[in-house]
Each structure stands twice: as structure tokens, then as C-alpha cells.
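In this supplementary section we document a worked example of the pipeline. Step one takes a protein sequence of length 495 as its only input; no multiple sequence alignment statistics are reported here. Step two produces a three-dimensional model, which step three serialises into C-alpha cells for compact storage. The input and output of this example are shown verbatim.
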Amino acid sequence: MPSSPSDLIQLVSTCTVFPDQKSTLGDLKLSVSDLPMLSCHYIQKGGLFTRPPLPIDSLLALLRRGLSRALSRFPPLAGRLTTDPEGHVFLTCNDAGADFVHANAGHLFVRDVLGPAHVPDCVKGFFALDRTVSYSGHFGPILAVQVTELADGVFIGCAVNHAVTDGTSFWNFFNTFAEVCRGVKRITRPRPDFSRDSALISTAVLKLPEGGPKVTFSGDTPLRERIFSFSREAVLRLKDRTNKNDEENDVVRSQLSAVEFLGKLSNDTVYGQNDNKVASILENWLKTSVLKPSQQTRQGEQPAAKTTVEISSFQSLSALLWRAVTRARKLPSSKKTTFRMAVNCRHRLEPKLDPYYFGNAIQSVPTYASAGDVLSRDLRWCAEQLNSSVRAHDSEMVRRFVEDWESEPRCFPLGNADGASITMGSSPRFPMYDNDFGWGRPLAVRSGRANKFDGKISAFPGRDGTGTVDLEVVLSPETMAALESDSEFMQYVSS
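The serialised model returned by step three reads:
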């Protein structure tokens, strides 16, 4: 089988799809979370589906109509970027349209995509605008949808300008696109919020080189990519190990788990606004009524000086990965390692942004530790470092990040320049498997070549929706081989 994606995928046709209604939105100014992404590749994510029970021409017509309607709900995705004479970058909602690509890979089967241990190169050919830098939105489409026929399936992939959307906005659009194609009478998600009146909007100017910025990492470095799956049972076992739970702490653990669950629910855009309010009320009640500082102390006892922090499932999994990758890289004990996590600022900023705020509302939170500490300390210690960094990222810290960027406007330096970094993106909370276009949910979610380098990790929910997690791990070949032989890590991986 040929190894080059260009050998595997045959381009059949390309056209432009326009919104079915004229946009009434004015120009949207790019925020301090949008502008740094101008040097990043377009986001590339999509779903692998069984072959629908209708001819390909009918399928393409259905998807084009659905895309046209979805664009009317998301006018910025049919627009273009513009820069004014002062250097401020705007998203102009001018109905210029999105690309729609039909491709054929009829010699490939679903098993060819899902069967190999490592993600095969053919997946890279399932996406348009490959390795396109987001600054190019000045000259070309903000969005491109590619539909690729397989022998027994179809892949629907979206490439979206990263200076225009983050993961929350991306999946809100993708879910809406699927719902429209499925023929729902009423879209379940609220309309996106396009307001530009928060602390993320700045007068600072990002000065860019002639012709626009370039990506900050090499796109030619040999890499291996694998999806590691973790069952719900394995994730809970790992969380239990991280928190060193015993019978004495069972009640506290269940209470804290309830707080964690309700906290996620109140910040999760999958749920409606009323659900969020109820969850938030219950969460606050648990915190104030159930989890008093004593946690709870017996009558007459003094509260403990320090309350043990409950580490979340995802932070436990991240700590496990941090240790395993650091070990696999065989770094000197004095080498400083970095674990970066993308955090959603919508609910962190005060006043809060709308959960459906459209654009980038993320910041990259770094946690630092020497390789010696990561490997000599226990899993709990590593998880506590991550937990502390994320918990500290409140509204004040969000604003501090904004002020820091304003003092020195710059593009986001993606990559792993020192060979000791891990960058965690995406989220297992994103509704990636809610995309039913009319013939069933995706068999799998995959991403393209965009923004991938040694140490880039993306977290996906598992398909079964029961708390399983998939980690898309990109590493150098030698590091990947060592990770796959790491007993501490692999004992939690599903076979």
C-alpha cells in the first residue's frame, strides 16, 4: 500500500458553499487569544462513519445543503480575515463562502484506518488545507469541509482557521452541521455568541512579518502517532491510585467526586443554560454545606491545617503521561520539563463569557518540574503540580496573561524546542461523538497533520460515552517505542 497520503486520495471536485442567508454581523475583532494563533495551522478534525445508505451524489447534495444552513448560523466561517491600516486584524463576515471538497479513497477500508497500531498516513489525506497557516485566512477560506469516500465508509473532515475558533467553537459548529444534515426541526444548542466586549479584546497590535508568520516548529521531523485508549475502569483505578484513597476517605471522596462532576456539568456547553444553573447551585451547596474546611471534623475538633486536594481523573491521566514520556525520553535528571495544558477561560473570567462564545477563549498553562523530580516523586506529586497550576488560573490570572501578552504581542510558540515539553490540547469533554449526520454516530474521531510535533497530545472522549478517554499521542519514533514498553503506563491502556 502506498505510504504517501497524496498517493492514497484522489481529488474528485471542489466547490464553494455559501450561507443560505445573508450575514448581518459586522466585523469581529480578533482577541488576544485569537491573534497568537495566526502562526498555527488550521484545526483539522473529523469523523469516520459507516457508508450511508444513499448514493454518493445524494450524500454530497445533503452535506452541501446542510453546510449552507450551518454557515448562516456561523457567518464568520464563511468570511475572511482583514487587517486595517493600524494593524488590527478583523474577521469580516462577508459571505465569501467555505470550500467543499469531494475526494475518493475507494481502495481503503475502515479497517485500514482503525486496524494499525499507529495512525496510518492515509488519515492525513482526509483533510483539506493541509499545513495551511491561519494567517492565510486573509486570502482564502476560513473553513473547508472534505468528504472522502472509502470502500465501506466515509470520512467527513473539517479544517478551520485556528485564529477564528478553538475546540469549543469548532465542535459547536460541527455538531450543528450534523444536526442540520440529520434534519432536526430545532437545533439543540443555543446560537453562538459573537460579542467582542470582554477583557480578551485589546488595542494592542501584533506586528507580523511581510507575508505573514510561519509555524514555529519543523514539519519534516519523523514522528509516530498512536491512539491510546483508557477504559472507565482503568481511569478510575488510576484516579484512586493518585488520590491514595482508603476506606476512611470513601465518604469524602464521593462528595468531592460529586463536586467535580457538577463543576464539569456547570461548565460544559453540551448542556443547556438551565441545566448549568441547577448544577452550579448544587455544586455551591456541596462546597459550603458538605465540604466545610474541617472536611467534616467531629464536633469539638479543630479543622485540619490543610485539606487534601482531590485530583481529577484527567489530571491523574496527564500525570501518568508526564512521567512515562519523561522516562521514555531518557532526560538528564536536572533537565527542566514542561507540561502545557490548554484551559478554557470562558467560565474562569469574571464576568464570565457565554459558554457558546465564538472564537478562541483558551490560554496555555505551563507546569514546570525537573526530570529528576517527575521520575523520583510519586504520581500524586506530579498530579498535584498540574492541579495547582490549573486551579490557580482564575480570572485574575487570565487577565494577567492578557496584560503580559499586551506588553509583548507575539504569536504562540508551538513546538518542543528543548526536547522536554508536552503540550496537551483538546478535551475529553468535547462532544465529538454527538455528530450523527443521519445514519449513525462516528466510528472514530481523527485529526490531520496540523500542529503536530514531538510531545503534542490531544485528548478525546471514548466512543462509548461512559467516561473512557482516548489520548492521541505524537512522539519521535524512539520515544514512542520506549513509551509502548513502559509498564507503568501500558498497564492502564486498553488492549
